[in-house]
Amino acid sequence: MRAVRRFTVRASLPESLSGLGDLATNLRWTWHPPTRDLFASMDAELFNRVRDPLRMLTALPPARLDELAVDDAFLAHAREAVADLDRYLAEPRWYQKQDDPDLPPAVAYFSMEFGVTEALPNYSGGLGVLAGDHLKAASDLGVPMVGVGLLYRAGYFRQALSLDGWQVEHYPVIDPNAFPLELLTDGGKPVLVDVAMPAGRTLHAQIWKARVGRIPLLLLDTDTDANDEDLRAVTDRLYGGDADHRIRQEILSGIGGFRAVRRYCELTGHPQPKVFHTNEGHAGFLGLERAREIIQADGLAFDEALPAVRAGTVFTTHTPVSAGIDRFPVDLVQRYFTDGRLVPDVDPRRVLALGAEDNPGLFNMAHMGLRLAQRANGVSALHGRVSRRMFSRLWPGFDFDEVPVSSVTNGVHGPTWVARELSALLGRNHEELGLDGAQGKPLRDGVTDEQLWALRRELREKLVAEVRRRVRAAWMQRGASALELGWTDTVFDPDVLTVGFARRVPTYKRLTLMLRDPDRLRALLLDERRPIQLVVAGKSHPADEGGKQLIQQIVRFVDDPEVRRRIVFLPDYDMSMARYLYRGCDVWLNTPVRQLEACGTSGMKSALNGGLNLSIRDGWWDECYDGSNGWAIPTADGVTDPLRRDELEAAALYDLLGHQIAPLFYDRGADGVPGGWLSMVWHTLETLGPRVQASRMVREYVESGYLPASRMVAEATGDGYRGALSLADYRTKLDVSWPRVRIFDTELLVEDSAPMVTGTEVTIRARIDLAGLEPSEVDVQAVVGKVGDGDELSDPVTVGMSGDGIGAFAARLKLPHPGSIGYTVRVLPKHRLLATPAELARVVHA
């Protein structure tokens, strides 16, 4: 018989053990070893199996709980853990110690997925794990943040393999009561937020709260009796369904998520956020709801509310290619917004204009995100450059480098990902693992190469044991008999160079680049003197047939009895498996097509554990590779044939593995330690450790995003929205005057026939008709730079020009470069509420 409904009953704890409930439901335990040790001491075998304190409390026999309730030593340990959590939640941290009254009282952080722990399976891959690390680092730093997302009743998917190596998906149904979540209630009743749907219907969502250290994470759930059957399924799966399903999720995430934050803060007294950060464009509709709130509460028009909305919005894009951006058919967007019920008082035509792109039939979520945010960034320095080029059409007339999209390189949460054995060896506690600067004693103090090498082997040995367990389980799931799986006991060797490759499996990540020449790969794996073993893992999106074919190619290769002791594919890649891989692999492999990997944080986690990266110079590796912390796979730049490019880059990969990496790993001294290898490991730990931390990333967001956004919000909203109204009036004036602004003539003058050499002072003059604009309302600039055959300026130097009030402008500057030099004059808008001169996408050139 099948149950018609499922539910979870939590354990009833004796009064003396009541504090365990708070410890189990606050996800700080995921990065706090002492709390995990406390729960492990209750039943080590059970804890190692479930790895979830809340599940453990449910699974423990009542008799064991009764024993612990009178165990003085355990109770003392528990009281100490509870007191430590209370201190962590209340004490001033980095954010509270900043002497700046403009810091926002709270920041709302929106993401479509959050990978905090495998005990809360609400993520698919890197975007979600990054969001989880962002919240953890914000908690450690004391940043007053509220996370906002959706709760998926079937999560992403669990991956298995068919007998012929094809990916098979299944979606286990979850009960939120079984997870470290609590339902937001008011007077004992669930709090619901509503968003309007077409045909007069309403979508209702209840709100579950996870506690991520100091950070509340609000997850909206539509599986409630208040909804029609089809609307209950809006939050059924992550990244599932058709366009209609996706737009419902994104409307709920943005508009419903904003309403959930408002309601949560009203009920709990949490400060209302002043700054809103969207992790990708999925929640971009929240800007419309914020505008509606201002319009209805303060009587402003949409154009007057828009500056206040933009001032407080930070938008992070993770997409390096246009094809990766969420787009919806315009008629689908019209269906949800035209009747005016979803965001009353916001003209649907303005909604459509925010998402407009070159294709008039599509609504572009990234374009809307950029138009509703005053600050935008990519997630690595290279990705920032790629994004400026990709979105440059939104800012015509500006050079790529002037497009207002900056970069904040992603980071990872050290306490979550670093092996505790390594932190103990290096004398770092769990708090210090998350710091982004030099702290305490140098890493090498009192630690020898022999000790580090012994630890690296220990971590590799743990990975080998896990690989054998998972390989055996995978074959059993594929239909093999236990009698024929004796060979799995000899899969991998703890003394063999171990390479890891684990990530999502879209085509651009090139899972099968390593198979380009199977014979060369086989020779590397089976080399008698310097063998290599390779562990591969990753999921393909259920709708990505090409990605599934790549997985099948790998599986068919690793199924070969000749090589299967040296190369494995592990299905169902998740955070639990990832920790074994990051800690136990000697080399972390990454082979994307260059400029298609926005950041790629898996290699950062390996580096924090002493792994060396072997990667195409893409994402974070492009800016962090220094020649001594790993290897850069040469790229076949300029080769347009993708097959030829793959062939060349695969050959370079084989050469590095066979001629540099393996020889260095196996080059042992008299003590059996590879000194050259360990010098690179030490260098990686010392130099990359601080750079790849999520604490560094969150500090950058505070300093370059949240703080200036908070100041701009104060400017825009203070004194009855005086700043926002001023900027709206200014934009109206620009609409009339800007098309008539003209630069009539320009000249460059050299005094006293001075020679034209570097450093010569020159004067640039121009006559300009400002068409009714005041000189204080524009920024007139002289730009001097090198010129090539096409007269395009490079390495430009920009100098402001001053006017005489009747249209004559001039500037003095020194010639900055030798060689062929050119200059131009341009006019830009100027207003105190503009973050950059390019913000309004208006410029007039000579």
Automatic annotation (TrEMBL):
EC top class named in words: transferase
N6-(pyridoxal phosphate)lysine PTM positions: K605
PROSITE patterns: PHOSPHORYLASE (PS00102)
InterPro entries: Agluc_phsphrylas, Glyco_trans_35, Glycogen/Maltodextrin_Phosph, Glycogen_phosphorylase_DUF3417, Pyridoxal_P_attach_site
Cofactor(s) of this protein: pyridoxal 5'-phosphate
Function per UniProt: Phosphorylase is an important allosteric enzyme in carbohydrate metabolism. Enzymes from different sources differ in their regulatory mechanisms and in their natural substrates. However, all known phosphorylases share catalytic and structural properties.
Name used for this protein in its record: glycogen phosphorylase
Provenance organism: Amycolatopsis keratiniphila
Gene designation: glgP
